[in-house]
Amino acid sequence: MLQSSGVLGTRLFERLAAPDPSEGAATETGLGEIVESIKRHLVELLNSHPGHSECAPELGLLDFNDATIGVLDLERNIERAIRRCIERFEPRVQRVEVTTLPRGSDVLQLRFQVHATVELGRGLGQATIDLVLNDKRYQCLD
Q1: For residue 9, pLDDT beyond 80
Q2: pLDDT surpasses 60 at 8
Q3: What's the pTM value of the predicted model, to 2 decimals?
Q4: Segment 28-71, tens digit of pLDDT
Q5: Is 35 helix (H, G, I), strand (E, B) or coil?
């Protein structure tokens, strides 16, 4: 996903929404900016469900509200599903690893950490993104 203008990391609609269209093209995007863009995309991506997008029917994650799956199996299944979804629909990252984080005070929340290599255009960077599944919605933590 290299672009000759040096713009890498921001999505099309983010570039279109920028106040000065030439601003994004003239400067190289840093790792922090790219990671923030990836976080916004992951929230949209992981809260989508297969079958809801006509152009990409497999986009998103299944609903994991199945009481017959044990907690450990559920966490592993969600880890794998998150990793596959990111690898397939987030082209700015590679070598994605997803791990379950210990539960906090809210036992109904599931927490995950995503480690990925991010393409910067001039090289690679490492990113860590913390996710929380709370009330059927994925959120990225700061």
Answers
A1: no
A2: no
A3: 0.76
A4: 568 899 999 999 999 999 999 888 888 888 888 877 765 555 66
A5: helix
CA 40 to chain centre: 7
Contact criterion met (CB below 8 Å) for 100 and 80: no
Residue 106: partners with Cβ closer than 8 Å, 6 or more residues away: 134
CB 70 within 8 A of CB 96: no
* Contact call for residues 28 and 6 (beta carbons, < 8 A): yes
CATH topology assigned to domain 30-141: Nuclear Transport Factor 2; Chain: A, (3.10.450)
- Cα separation, 127 vs 103, in Å, equals 22
Q: Which residues pair with 98 in a beta bridge?
A: 114
Which residues have CB under 8 Å from 86's CB, separation 6+?
A: 42, 45, 93, 96, 98, 114, 116
CA distance 52 to 88: 16
Question: Worst-scoring range by mean pLDDT, 12-26, 84-98, 102-116, 122-136?
Answer: 12-26
User: What would the two tokens of residue 106 be?
Assistant: 């809210």
